Amino acid sequence: MAMPMRRTLVALHRATCRRLTNAEVSLDVRHPGPLFLPVRTKKRYFIPPAVGMKTKMEGFTEAKARAAGIVGKQENIERPINISCTAGVFDPYVPPEGDARLSTLSKEGLKQRAEQIRQSATSQLAIRKIKEHDSLFKTRDFAERAQEIFVEAHNALTQFNKEKLHSLVTERCYPEMTRGNRYKTIRWSFIESLEPPRVVHARCTDMVAKGNVYGQVTVRMHSRQTLAIYDRFGRLMLGSEEQPKDVLEYLVIERHLVNPYGRWRLHGKIVPSWAPAKDPIIKTVMILGPKLRPGEEFDALNHEVPKPAAVQ
Amino acid sequence: SLESKAWEKKNLKVYPPQLPDEPRRPAEIHHSRRQIKYSKDKMWYLAKMIQGLSIDEAIAQLEFNDKKGAKIMKEVLLEAQEKAVKNHNVEYKSNLYVAESYSGKGRYLKRIRYHGRGMFGIMDKVYCHYFVKLVEGSPPKTVEKTSFDQAKQYVQNLKSRTIIHSL
């Protein structure tokens, strides 16, 4: 009984399908067909990539979209701010003139400088505030730790160990140290410290909100170092590996005190105005002369060579 | 890979520092320009014209050449010279010569070119890349071999033949 029934049903289905036209097939409720049937055309062997796209003016589409009220992709309005370090040195320490030169001559000079840290009141207040947050802070130990941080940071710079360098140096100091050094080889060595490092200056500042305290401590150190920078091809650019130099530096070490995971990191250096000029690079640099209009002549006698601007 | 920038990556190679007794390594600067609207075959003629010349001569030759590619090539050379002085520690900007210079095929756009009788062709909108390598120093002097020299060499080869199993 099932077989003849099925056959009649199939016959009925065929009959209904034949009755319906192409358009009605899609609208038929009992046996719905596809809504979009491809119309048979001549086969295209090559379809060029949207030829019409070029003619649409770019400004046109934007104006149209704005008029229609469609909000397009928002361009980045945000600017990233780094909270883990301050943007500069607050109330920088002004090193006294002739700091390294007079120390061997007069004993009074030494005594004076040793007492200065106790005299300046703001530094004392700052140190007291630092001790509030970090109870183990001691001026004497800190100076040695600062020197260790300095040496480790420069060693990481020679190996270009990014993670270690980021943990030893703040985000403000990192680009200063590494700008232009990516494809250069730096050979640096710390030979010895000529004088024990001393804490010279301290400041505590609040950033953005009150209570968000950052501590900055200036450490003075006199040491002997060698520095040699080689360019991409292994040729010496600056300094020499055998010749050591005596260097007097004022390092600024910073820490985000409120942050329990904050660490004392190198924040920058203070270069006094009376510091001796650095060694020139082993290269001749061309300084462009004045732009002459046609007919003008170059006046060699009255022309002054423009001095390069100070970096720090 | 169609978008490989191998030529630009050659600029990132760092050599270890040289010992003081080694001869000074000449600086090499790789520069290129991609997707220039010009034919690679037409660009080839200009590229091979300046290969081996010093940079000043090359720029002079391109400045007074009437081709469209010459203007673009001159810009590329000037850019490369500036980069050499700024980034690659080259001392004198004239102390460079063109060691390698060649053109390559860029990525083409395809369009239809309509012919009669409903026939069509695929038109290629040609683009090319141009690569140049500048090396520090004066250009190497190629010893020109005269025809007399070549003849002498030929006679020498004939004379130096050994005849085996002879008396």
Automatic annotation (TrEMBL), chain A:
Keyword entries, A-Z: Mitochondrion, Ribonucleoprotein, Ribosomal protein, Transit peptide
InterPro entries in alphabetical order: mtLSU_mL45, NTF2-like_dom_sf, Tim44-like_dom
Domain of life: Eukaryota
Tim44-like domain sequence ranges: 123-271
CC per GO annotation: mitochondrion; ribonucleoprotein complex; ribosome
Pfam families documented for this protein: Tim44
Compartment list: Mitochondrion
Gene3D superfamilies: 3.10.450.240
Function noted in UniProt: Component of the mitochondrial large ribosomal subunit (mt-LSU). Within the mitochondrial ribosomes, required to direct the nascent polypeptide toward the tunnel exit and position the exit at a distance from the membrane surface.
Family membership noted in the UniProt record: Belongs to the mitochondrion-specific ribosomal protein mL45 family.
PANTHER family, sorted: 39S RIBOSOMAL PROTEIN L45, MITOCHONDRIAL, LARGE RIBOSOMAL SUBUNIT PROTEIN ML45
Protein name: Large ribosomal subunit protein mL45
Organism classification: Eukaryota, Metazoa, Chordata, Craniata, Vertebrata
TrEMBL record, chain B:
SUPFAM superfamilies: Ribosomal protein L22 (SSF54843)
Gene3D superfamilies in alphabetical order: Ribosomal protein L22/L17 (3.90.470.10)
Any matching Pfam family: Ribosomal_L22
One term under GO cellular component: mitochondrial large ribosomal subunit
Signal peptide: none
Localization in the cell: Mitochondrion
Biological process according to GO: translation
Major site of localization recorded for this protein: mitochondrion
GO terms of molecular function: structural constituent of ribosome
InterPro entries in alphabetical order: Ribosomal_uL22, Ribosomal_uL22_bac/org-type, Ribosomal_uL22_sf
Keyword Transferase: no
Keywords: Mitochondrion, Ribonucleoprotein, Ribosomal protein, Transit peptide
Record-stated family: Belongs to the universal ribosomal protein uL22 family.
Family annotation (PANTHER family): CHLOROPLAST 50S RIBOSOMAL PROTEIN L22-RELATED, LARGE RIBOSOMAL SUBUNIT PROTEIN UL22M
Protein name as it appears in the record: Large ribosomal subunit protein uL22m
Natural source organism: Lates calcarifer
Gene name of the record: MRPL22
